[in-house]
Amino acid sequence: MSMFLSETDIARFLGQSIPETRKAIKSSKLKSITRQGHRVFPREDVLNWLAENFTSLTSERLMRADNSSADSAGFDPTSCGITRLLSESEVCFPEKTSTRSSILRFISNRAVELGAVYDAAELREQLEQREMVVSTALKCGAALIHPLDIRQLYVEKELLLLIIPPHPLPFGESRGRLTSLFFLLLFPDPHRHVHILARLNRLLRSNDFIETILCATSHEEALDIVYRRELDIISSGGKS
User: Fold this and answer.
1) CATH, range 81-239
2) Gap between the Cα atoms of 21 and 65, Å rounded
3) Residues 191-220: pLDDT tens digits?
4) Residue 240 near residue 233 (C-beta atoms within 8 A)
């Protein structure tokens, strides 16, 4: 698993040209180094930057990032990949979670139970460290949680989890908004990670989707809501 990503990698993540990418990198202040004559960027810095900036992209640019990263990762951008990944794992409805620590503890333990990782404490530490850099909580009331550096974990298999706690809780959103919906992303391949990140951002641009899924009471009901929303964004192109 490479520690660094190139300008070409970032261009594929964003679905744009190298000149456009260089302009975005310049404004991002991402730090780079030179390796074997090529300019490269620390992998986790790039992924964290994308996570923080996807919410500000236009719908059309976010769609380009979704489709381009899907192609690079071997996903079919016209398929309901989020629905499929969630159906392979689980939608969780924890009974007692009222703090950031408690939700991260629940998520880490569930990842171990599902065989994605072996050490819940190590995963929780990586999730905590990521939240200390910049919170993954979005203003829409959802959080897209992922480790600060997934290379520090032994990931047995990819995992996407959806967690719907009984009540909203403080999770670090910049303006103090409470968070009601949590996704865990465990994808060692950066292209697969970026595709899932972009697709989730597209799903979450609908307030109706968020309000509806928060009322779900079962795994099957939540999956159906995700499936219908994913069909909408696939058919709508860049208008999602």
Assistant:
1) 3.40.930.10
2) 12
3) 899 999 999 999 999 999 999 999 999 999
4) yes
Collapsed DSSP state (helix, strand, coil) of residue 9: helix
Whole-structure pTM value: 0.90
Choose among 15, 5, 9: nearest CA to 198.
15
Residue 29 Rama label (left phi>0; alpha psi -120 to 50; beta): left
Question: Six-digit token pair at 6?
Answer: 């190139």
| β-strand pairing of 38-42 with 159-163 | unpaired
The architecture in CATH of the region 4-73 reads: Orthogonal Bundle (1.10)
Residue type, 233: I
Q: Give strand pairing partners of 185.
A: 160
Kindly tell me the burial class for residue 180, based on how many C-beta atoms sit within 10 Å of its own C-beta (0-12, 13-18, 19 or more): buried
236 is written with which tokens? 């709508």
The residues of the chain that CATH labels 3.40.930.10 are 81-239
Q: Give me the phi and psi of 179, to 5 degrees please.
A: -115, 135
Confidence of residue 238 (pLDDT cuts 50, 70, 90): low
